[in-house]
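#lab-general

N.A. 3:47 PM
ok so I finally got the sequence cleaned up, no stray characters, all 613 residues accounted for. can someone with queue access submit it? mine expired

B.Y. 3:52 PM
send it over

N.A. 3:53 PM
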Amino acid sequence: MSTYKNLIGKDVNFLSTDPDNDAAEGQIWYNSTSGVFKDLLVNEAWSSGGSMIVGRRYFAGCGTQTAGLAFGGNHTGSDTDNNTEEYNGSGWANGGNLTTGRAYLAGCGTQTAGLAFGGGTHPSPATQAITEEYNGSSWSEQNDMSTARRALAGAGTQTSALAFGGSVPPTLQTATEEYGGTSWTSGGAMSTARKYLAGAGASQTAALAFGGMAPGATNATEEYDGSSWTTGGSLNTSRGYLAGAGTQTAALAMLGYNDKTNTEAYDGTSWSNKPAATTGREGVAGCGTTTAGLVFGGKVSDVVSNTEEFTGSVNVITGAAWAAGGAYPISVFSAKFVGDKDAGLGFAGYNAITTTCEYNGSSWTNVPSLPAGGGFGLGFAGTQTAGLAWNGYSGTFGGGAFNPTTAYEYNGSSWTSGGATPFQGRDSTGFGTQTAAIGAGGYTQTPAQPPTGVGVTTNKTVAYDGSSWTNVNSLNTAREVLGGFGTQTAGVAFGGQQPPANNLTEDWDGTNWTASNTMNIGRRNVGGFGTQTEGYAVGGRAPNYPSPNSNFVEEYNGSSWVTSANLATGRSSIAVASSLAGPGQSGSSPYAPLIEEFTGETSALNIRTITTS
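B.Y. 4:20 PM
back already:
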């Protein structure tokens, strides 16, 4: 008689608590505390990934869920993009630009060995035969395709690729071309001419074509064996402008026109419906496998930067996200936050120069104000019960004066004076604690200038020990309204104005500043929180970004930046503490009292209770 161990290779364990890692997959156990049998269930679901740097549609992608590549596309229908972005499993970073920007192109391969081909350029929708190879940092042009076309699909690798379908306006195409790493040759024609289709397949001899517009949305699926196409199982939902991933016998069809959230999986014979994506869209790109898919960008009513990951595993993954918190009690910008989303302290700012409030995770309470003067553009550091503020600016823009060289300390109930600062100034960044803080950059007044707010951008850095300030080694680049996070011995300063917005990053080791990799989007009036190896740049003003008051968020790992979950509402001069974003300047509300709370990505086992029903 066979036992469970004979069949599965594992015993039925007797446990007082449930296991906490996926090594328990395939295991049945009896939980003696709850008195039930349990096991792990494979969960198929979509979760949010870091937003793209540049939202776009009609572009191409390749690679895997943890090493993806996005390139080309357009934003308005009358432009083309040469931008390339690389995905690391959590967010996007800028890669090398395409040699020729174009939309409606196709691609295949990997993040370090990608291939881009075909497409169309503007101002007129010129159809292209251009082929480019990506080496992980830059693109190089190769021999053209035999037939210039757009809205085509691809499969395979950089040295063994396949291009099929598409359009040479107004004619739909059945042509297939094979790329051997140097040049293109003709392959077998498809049965159904179409454009805006998707492809999958890891090799030139085992590819899959599905969906598309022919001219209306089609559910046709075809399989390629290296010389000819044969009919495969039809999609359950006809659609075009979709994305594909996987292989000929294990493929994903993701989103698209007609049913914009629809996801289906192919097993080599037939398609089956899978959980729908969270954000429905068309004109998307994708990559990955049936258990680790990735879809990004596209169009809802306008272009979007959303990224979603499809996972089939015993883990339930919840993507990082911002959610609304308790509204700030006063409309203000350039306020300062310290602490975190469960115990925050907000103070000062333009329009409320002495106001101080405490946050308990759901609502704000007014507490004793800053001493007379207050201001905006203050330096800041610390926690809710041990806060620190210094310098700043009083009055109105262009008509006020620098505050005295005074620091103030908050003890959880009231403010008292701290050690005098060695300069007058505003808009520096700060990080650390009340007894071990760093202030860097800003806009300082020189002794020869009158007290009217006139000054110069500075690279000055100062350290506070709880009683007095000391001048320490300066930033490499002078700037103001910059962001920062970290500790007195391991900090980061980023962005700012010099005077235009910039993307510079510098690391502080307790003695010196060292230049690091730049941000993906330069911003000023930006907020930050976290540590030197896991920090976030939040919001800000980005002149070259689609919206000047940005909702953009980037994560820093100690050496480079990738995108994270965006704010719901873009704003600059934003107040930010640990996992807490507050009021700032917003396009719809100049002094928006908005509060958003950040929760990072989480993963939990999908444990099922076994019942007899």
